[in-house]
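Reminder: ligand-aware prediction takes two inputs, not one.
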Amino acid sequence: MNPWEEYKAKNGVTPVDLLRLKSQTIPKEKAEARYVICITCPFFQKMTKQCLKCGCFMAAKTKLDLATCPIGKWGKYPEDTE
Ligand code: SF4
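Here is what comes back for the chain with iron/sulfur cluster:
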């Protein structure tokens, strides 16, 4: 498995997917619910709004349908996949 395949396995998406927001976004309420989880997470870097686990900018990543939290806090549960 190459590094990008490993990254996608952990995060559900790659940084390239962040450039295609229009085709892969989820409803605003669901993205906001994910973001609330992130901003209360110890791995959330408040100054840059990045996750220290994956390095992603969470305001963008939380909007992606296939995105997942690398430590399983969101994106892998049935209520977060609809
Ligand atoms: S993606 Fe997961 S690990 Fe990263 S800040 Fe959000 S909740 Fe925390």
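The pocket of iron/sulfur cluster is lined by residues 37-38, 41, 43-44, 51, 53, 58, 69-71, 73 (CB under 6 Å). The first helix runs from residue 3 to 11. We will return to this case in the review session.
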